[in-house]
């Protein structure tokens, strides 16, 4: 056992040794230790370097507020994690931790030179310096800043760990397992409310659990004894869930909270067995009781940041909970009674301690207790300097003047190896404010406390500003009873004995005989901002606390200013001569402590990151070497290369086959909406630009859908299956949006219409067969059917049967070829497809993908919504006036078609483009210009679709060009990076203008 | 994250819903008789106020029904939820 382990406690099992490494050196701690307590037990205080000045820093606290002791865990492994607080990491066998922000080592750090030049790098140094010369930014300043920025090292490999999300609902959520949280949970659970209690430590009880002082008794027992009994009872309650190692991250509106549970972070790596590492709890609670406690404040004075300078209550916890003495020659520097509990604890274990108190006196019981034990107290005194490089070894103290604004008398040097600070308490109001709650400022102890108006959450205990044991128990009990509307209970008659603090004094920035400019009085330890920086910011004109924060970076480190924000505010208020309450605070934002990315994404990684939709024919495509294109969430065959064919060659071959003989396309992904109801025809009249009432049963029609602003939104063929029954198809990507848009109109604008919409996209698979031989193939599949043009004309539909399975056959065409689409229930999709391939074998039927489909339709000048349109194209712009009904009184978007803007002649309009060199293929998206001489060159349009057509043996393109309609035959230029391509505006239909092939 | 009381399904998480903007903007019955300005008023103009606002919401990942909500945008308090076609609450 090391000499610093002075005390046996039940929380650290001193029979179970645990070995670990810090900065490559092997140490031993015990089961129950944190990394911090184990290091302290080994006499290690120096654990890191500060961010800006690289000053040596030591462990300061014992919890999530820790600014200094942040480590890299398990460096050089896949699971390495930076910026982990040593005070929160539970020790396990083989743990490897290292300090950050220092090179070559924490004891000798080159960056420490920043400390020497610190007078030249004040607040805002970066803003001021790296402004000029401008040319230095890219080559010199940015690489330099990047090299020195950041704390730890990010892992370089994918995170191998598992993370989980869990959604839960509770009547009551209690945040914090300290004394008030335990009282609250017990009241809630005993009153038949389904309750969850979450606590970030591995055991319940907060700071009361190790309190063993004659001055703090509940029902005549030590407060820790009483609380232990309460916890034992609590654990027996049925409707209470207790989650330890679970820290609250965020409190959103309507009592929706996120909490992160550490499941395996405390287990040795070789025993984790691939289980879940962390679980994010998504909790919706009817009522929330916040009992997050308070954080002890440091004091701000010259050189207050040396290793060995800690928070007083943390010194007490290391002693009474972990059995570790942080020093043998302790000095406590305080402004309140709380620190005297630490002094009593130390003294009772025979450890030397002296107290420096800025107050003039205090007559409370606990102070008397300390005096009686022989603790020397320096009243009305302050520390003016500290000494010791890698660890504190002595301090200078002086007396305070009457008003506390100055120091008087002589310096007095005191030797010490640990300096415990206590500047009072800051209620952890983070959760309250995250939920939208406001704060009130309480003058007497300079705290912001919750101003409660939300009827569904309350704050109890020290996070509500109750710091005395009797107040905590009485107020918690009363508040919780009121909140949960329960009557008397076991806590009503609890008798509490405790020392009461009467004398208070607070000085945010302690005075010094050394001039302010030469003092290093740290406020934010992690970001190295000092009182001087804050005052500089104020002198330079920053007034708002939010601006001062950003300029000085106070409170912007990974600890988010848990220790520093109040002092920054206090110093601003004092310097500016305003009341602290009127300044307000900076915004408290989630998460309370950093969350891992893993816990945020949970299981939504890899193949679960997004849904992949596959058609029922997918397997066949894969077996036949399909390359896929993502269309929305769908995987669509893009092209089917034979051997090592590239995209271009495959598409040329597929396109030619489709026009020369037969091609087959999996069109299952097109959106399909089943429309039924007596007003179905009227409904289609209103949503499409063309007329639908006269469409005969068994006929198909192409429809164009606009937004209310007149712009093309979607298109597709709709088939009339029956008197009151239609099947609408939509674009693949637009299916979901079209359905919700139609539902919106139906439910909100036209509730009088009797129409029902059902998405049937996934219900049917579609094989589309086109080409001059398609009719022969269909005849082979449906031998009983008459496919003559009279019996089965273009734009009509009939039912057919394959082995008793009914399918719908539509004779429609998106390629300009004779073409049929066969729809069949999805489970038969693959069989249908294979049947088509088999039947088409003698015609060399060629499967083709989306690229060929795009090429074939471009040859015919058919648009693709979303490729040739971009939400700014009207049907008139697309030269599709023919589809806009003049007779219909109204349809979605009609009125917008003659707004002053939509009737402009110089809108971008769809045209065809032919390159002067027929082998030159334009790039889609390329800009189009007409006049290169006038600068700046005016861009009059862009290419939307471009292909080399194997059927026309030349390059073709669709484009949108200003006033394009009137430009046919005109020469334009498509400027590229290293050449200008000459093009001629043409008709947008390149092939078969007479539509002969459709009936070939 | 709101807890929204869908009038058809009951209380559900906000992630199941989508907001459809300001409520009670009725599509004109005779759009062709409106001037450009009047049509633009319907088409483009939406309030975005700090305070009590009437909104359309859709239970997109649930029953797909649209309904109306009265929400205070300053504190996200939902004051009322009512079905399409029902009169908005007076208070």
Short description:
Chain A has 23 helices and 50 strands. With 1000 residues, chain A is α+β, with helices and mostly antiparallel strands. In chain B, 10% of the residues lie in helices and 37% in strands.
Describe this structure in words.
The complex is a heterodimer of chains A (1000) and B (91). In chain A, a hairpin with a 5-residue loop joins β36 (700-706) and β37 (712-722). Chain A is 21% helix and 29% strand. Chain A is of the alpha+beta class and 1000 residues long. Helix content of chain B is 10%, strand content 37%. Chain B has a four-stranded antiparallel sheet with strand order 3-4-5-6, with no helix packed on it. The mean pLDDT of chain B is 94. The two termini of chain B are 25 Å apart. Chain B has a single domain, classed as Folate-binding superfamily (Folate-binding fold, 2-Layer Sandwich).
Which features would summarize this protein structure in a list?
heterodimer, A: alpha+beta, FAD/NAD(P)-binding domain, seven-stranded mixed sheet, B: 91 residues, mainly beta, Folate-binding fold, four-stranded antiparallel sheet, two-stranded antiparallel ribbon, globular
Count of individual beta strands of chain A: 50
CATH superfamily of chain B: Folate-binding superfamily
The DSSP helix count of chain B reads 1
The helix content of chain B, as a percent range, equals under 10%
Distance between the termini of chain B: 25 Å
Strand content of chain A: 25-35%
| Global structural class of chain B | mainly beta
- Most extensive chain contact? A-B, 23 and 26 residues
Quickly count the helices of chain A: 23
Give the overall shape of chain A, derived from the CA principal axes. Answer: elongated
- By secondary-structure content and strand pairing, the structural class of chain A works out as alpha+beta
Uncertain regions of chain B: pLDDT < 50 for 5+ in a row?
A: none
Distance between the termini of chain A: 96 Å
Sheet with the most strands, sense and barrel status of chain A: 7 strands, mixed
Extended strand count of chain B: 6
CATH topology of chain B: Folate-binding fold
Give the SSE string of chain B: EEEHEEE
Radius of gyration of chain B: 15 Å
Query: Helical content of chain A, roughly?
Result: 10-25%
